[in-house]
Amino acid sequence: LRGGWSLDLTTKDTDGRRWDFSKKEMRRRAVVKINKDNPLVTVGSPMCTDWSTIMQLNWPRMSTEDREARMKAARRHLRFCVKIYEYQASRHRHYVHEHPTYAESWKEPEIQRLVKKEHSILAKIDQCQYGLWVRDRMGWASAKKPTQFLTNSPCIAEQLRRRCPGRHTHDGQRHASLFYGVSRQAQVYPNGLVDAICKGTKDQIEKRPQGTVRTGHDRC
């Protein structure tokens, strides 16, 4: 496998512009880049802040206008990701969509339609089983962070099945709390999760029908 690229607010395009998908032009540029590079797998993880269960505690403190503006932006980003996934599927390539298990985004019509498509597979994990550790008020501990993935790759889905048998199986017999700003530490995938997605991608390549011509763009 060859690593591809990351398109988010921490990276820039060739003109030095951040990949800010609240801007129509940057969404257009991303589509052009994907069409040109033809990646085997695209992984989408749109910001989940406004969809999270923690955010439900903050909404009452905001004005109706602020809440509507935030949700409009969150839905725009989510729909853009779905557009990319559908584009990948139409070219017999693969996508992986990730959001926390209890995120409200899973109830959105666009995501529900994608879930119901013939080749879509919904996989559930607990990230503590892939090595996610964070530091909360009591010190370092495994973070459970239940997470769902939606993908059209059976091999990637197969790697995303590990569930936690219980906090008693961890050192300290607990899961870290993700409240009080700790959730920011859990935004980065643990190495075990990265390895699982890469292994699934590799397995998917090897299971291609004989005679399939590789494009030279087997990257994710």
Describe the structure.
The chain is an alpha+beta fold. 32% of the residues lie in helices and 14% in strands. The strands form 2 sheets. The chain has a 4-stranded mixed sheet with strand order 1-2-6-3. 28% of the residues are buried. About 3% of the residues have low confidence.
Keywords:
alpha+beta; four-stranded mixed sheet; two-stranded antiparallel sheet; 32% helix; globular
Order of helices and strands: HEHEHEEEEHH
User: Please, how many helices?
Assistant: 5
What level of helicity do the residues show?
Answer: 25-40%
Report the uncertain regions.
211-217
Rg value: 18 Å
Largest sheet: 4 strands, mixed
Mean pLDDT equals 91
Q: Estimate the global geometry from the Cα principal axes.
A: globular
Separation, N- and C-terminal Cα atoms: 8 Å
Percent in strands: 5-15%
Q: What is this entry, summarized?
A:
With 220 residues, the protein is α+β, with helices and mostly antiparallel strands. The chain has helices spanning 24-37, 64-90, 109-115, 154-159, 191-206; strands spanning 41-44, 94-100, 121-126, 133-136, 139-142, 146-151.
